[in-house]
Records
---
Amino acid sequence: MATTVRAVARADEARWTELFHGYRDFYGMERSDEVARTVWSWIADPTHELECAVAESDGEVIAIADWRRFARPSRGGAAIFLDDLFTDPATRGSGAGSALIEHLRAIAAEEGLLEVRWITSETNADARRLYDRVAGAVPFVTYVSAV
């Protein structure tokens, strides 16, 4: 099963929404059509910073990667932040996740960006097996301050 990666298209909205809900379900977040509609509106807006790439196999979208460029003041440059990466559970192990990461690495290289960066739960063993193969972990702890 060959995997191809491309920018998301408007026709992908229903499948993207399904996979985005799967991502939120995986992390124990409440299912929210409102959040999905908001995020999709960002992706569909060419002036918004959030972009999306999809992995496709046999004409079906099997994985999504929501990402954006961001400034790295400590390094004096910019990079790509991969916000959400999710592969349909039925197609895990197909290479879709690594293909999406490689796609973002290629964009970063083409644009002269410093890196592709992302976070994951320390308990996400399946994803971490992939991430440990394609990237190096950094020794930082993430904090969140609710407002």
Note: The longest strand covers residues 60-72.
---
Amino acid sequence: MENLQLELIIAAMINFWILFFIFKHFLWEKLAKAIEERRKFLQASVEADDIAKKKLEEAEKQVEELLNEARIKAAAIEKSADDLSKQNSYKIIEKAEKEASHILVSAKTEIEKDRLDMANSMKSKILDLSLKLNSKIFWKESSNKELFEKELEVLTK
């Protein structure tokens, strides 16, 4: 049995070397090229992944910067809108105050005009009444008309 095993070992070694030379002769270069291409592809993939991560980080930074700028601009716009609305409200209030003062002045003028009209009307009525009384008392229509007018002027002032 010992011979048999030695022969089997020698046969296995010969088969191994034959297969090794066939493998090396026909497949080794193709397998080495495929392994090298795969290694290069994996390295390129890792490099592309690194580049993509860097670009993604840069894009995220840019997005954050743009968001910050947009927030700042929005705050500025909001502040200017508040200022503008305050200015508009002040203008509206000022305009309303001017209109109110104009209405007040025109009302005072109208009241003064009505008062003067009423005073003049009262003067003429008092004068007419006085003249009628005078004519009834003294039987003369025009007597003392000037005296009544002077007295009436003194009383109304």
Note: The CA atoms of residues 4 and 10 lie 10 Å apart.
---
Amino acid sequence: MTTIVRETKETKITVELTPGKGVARVDTGQPFFDHMLATFARYAGLDLSLHARGDLRHHLMEDVAITLGMAVQQVIPPTAARYGERCIPMDDALVQACLDVGGRFYYRGPLRNKLYDHFMRSFSEHAKMTLHLRILRGKDSHHVTEAAFKALGLALRDAMVDSGTVFSTKGSVALEVK
């Protein structure tokens, strides 16, 4: 299990994360955001306990994204399959997520809701993953956002499968900081 606590003047976030069955206990004080985070955990197959409070919705969502991204980065197996792609239909929405958990950040969206788009960018940056989200169809913002979290979760589940080998022509990367 990985536990990360992030505290600033604006927010306090506690995340406990472990690969599991997708059981989530989430409390941010923002019901729709709680629903999206629990949905992500369920579809990713990650057991998540998350408690967060903040002064502004923007600060809260950004700091949750940072903390959750850092926790996800910690639970990715060194011999992960690395790549994942899923496309989720949800009523009028059709959203595709493609990702690489190989350690390099890049984000391409956008989601229509600026706060949720910023969440995805901050999450992928701190998870050290490349994430492309494409809205293929959809008018209802709720459905588009939820389809994006489901697609992200399932793509991450696929990428985190332990393949038993390092998926890189570079092999393992050794880094020493002095």
Note: Residues 5 and 14 are 4 Å apart (CA to CA).
---
Amino acid sequence: MADFLGIPRRRLPIAIAMVLLLAAILVWLQGRFDQSDVKKGIALALAHRPAGRDGKSVFDALVGFGRGDPRCDGKVVSSLLGDVDVRCVLPGEQGAGYEFRVLLDGKRPPRPANPPAQLLFDQLQR
């Protein structure tokens, strides 16, 4: 019997099935890690207090606009660096929403990624 990369021909379908199963498991597992990173990024962005411990949080400021609770979503920009792009929109507000970049290492605070978010941070620092 001829071998393909050292695998006997009769065992080739099993080897292919195992490789496909492994790839599917790795894709599923990476998706779970990404979901966890997004949730942590959203929590860090909303809990951030630009003015320090005594100031209002980003969540408090967004709710304070009186347009409903913010709906936030995110996407992992870099799994290696733990960089998450968080976007929050208010139900009663039309527009691009508020975008923040969050590093999950906790060493640096979230930073605004668009003009509305920068304006929000500026208001909170006063």
Note: The chain has a mean pLDDT of 91.
